[in-house]
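question for whoever is on the cluster today: can someone run the full assembly for these? two chains, 631 residues total. i dont have access anymore since they changed the login thing
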Amino acid sequence: MTALLRANLPVLVVIAPLFIAFILTPLARRIRLVETLAFLATVLGLGAAGHLATVVFARRGSPFIYQLGGWPPPWGIELVAGNLGVIFALVVTGVSVPVVLFARGNLTAEVGDTGRVTRFYVLYLLLVGALAGMAVTNDLFNIYVLVEVVTLSCCGLVSARRHPRAAEAAFTYLILATLGSAFVLGGIGLIYMLTGHLNMGFAGQELGRVWPDYPHTVLLAVSFVIIGFGVKAAVFPLHVWLPDAHATAPSPASAILSGLAVKGYLLCLLKFLYGVFGGVLLRELAVHRILTLLGVAGIIAGSLLALTQEELKRRLAYSTVAQVGYLVLGGGLLNATGLTGALFYLASHAVIKATLFLAAGAIQAATGKSRIRELAGVGRKMPLTMAAFTIGSCGLIGLPLFFGFIGKWYLLVGSLEAGMILPVVAILAGSVLCAAYLLPVIRTAYFRPAPAVAWRDPGRPQKLALLLLATAVVVLGVRPGPFLELARKAAAELMAFV
Amino acid sequence: MNELWPRLLVNYPYLAAAILFVIGTFTVLTHPNLFKKLLGINIMESAIFLTFVASGNIRGGVAPIRATANAEAVYINPLPSALMLTGIVVSVSVTAFALALIVRLYRVYGTTDLRRIVVRRKEVTGDDGFAQG
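^ ran it for u. tokens below:
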């Protein structure tokens, strides 16, 4: 039995949440059971991902290759759990546990009756499973299918909120995300036409051989892939859907959308750019320069836009646009340090943004206020929630000893190694701007007199979720060792293609 | 240049796909009516499906079914068509979901025109924290 489980680990991480998602629907009347099952599914996913990490670690760098249905590549779908897959699977499953804990017994106000809450959990688990799938898959068309599962469940999660603005935001999101999917599928189609392969490894090798013969088609494929994933990952000029969608979604959904879903697309983009197109092609077409510029523009513009927002959740949503800029920038540096920074920052931002969005959601639920200037005194009335928010803010600004610092540090060193000064300026300016848009929230919450109303910290599961995430921000900031090592190895895996 | 047109005409499915793709993208991005946006998405996706299926086609080829074809028949590549079945299923789901959202928006705002929704947003939803932008 254990041998069987161990042999099928990479696929278990994906299908555990997917399978449990589909048995939830008929249990809608027993909402406690649904919540417990959803929680167990994420814990199971985390357990599988953790076990997978130890297995991959024991293999010393050679990835765990799994052939679905026993069909060998290039015919069958291949799952490859290397360090890159492991780090992302760990982040996805790790963040999904506290978020589902936060949702426990807490969704009725935002989502509605038990049937709707159950459907929320179904979509949530589909999203988690598909994101874990993105981590391990090595097949172009499989990526497209997972991208669509993620897209549809994200839009469903946004529209789960009973508010007309949520339906509107979900529609815009759906249309633009489907536009992105069409571009991605077009890119996959062009790659398939050029290479005759859907397996990323085979397609990459073949493309490396044939691309000088078809320069225009390759250029088209690269631009389709970048635009497609760019829209879906909210890379700066293509981010227009994100603030509405992430600000109007129910809070646990906001946390998972901002923390994980966007990262899934970025991971896919990295897999395409490095694994399929390869470093030579990227340099030839100057794709890395374009990515760096997009990243710099995203950091500055996203942070400035965040500064102008009056609502807490919208400010956090624009901040996500800025943080996506860091990751794109790291992907464009084309050196191991920059990539390590990007991957590590991906993990930090997932944890930190989940903390911030959950804390913001708890505050909004308790006070009924969403504007930052109305939050005077929240710090004293809701000490634990605001403490988690403060720790998350310190992490996002990138203060030393918090989770966000090391990723930004590596990005900085990576930019210097690449000999570029513009990213250095952008990274530093981004941190300063981040302090400028988050610290006023903390100041208002702690140092303005509180109105005489009874606001209270949320219930026990919510407190536990915030505590878990805030602890992770501090612990992984103080002792990043093993995780940093994993990020470094994952970056080395990608750099092998350059 | 004089070589371009014959080559384009020989590959007319791709030319058609490119035209459809541009029409679809333009409609999605510029049309204020929600239904038209959805139609634009569908046209775009059809263009992609056409590219895929055309890439597997061989002129004069037959479907790769051993029992019905003679020995020297040239088979077309069935894989792109099979993949596009999945693509079509996804496209149908997206369309269904988008239509459901349009119905929900119509019930609230009484219109499917994005410009009028923006005008009515304030009076319908009021200032409950979502009023800005």
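summary bc i know u wont read the tokens: Chain A has two domains: 1-182+242-273, 304-498. Chain A touches chain B through 37 residues (CB under 8 Å).
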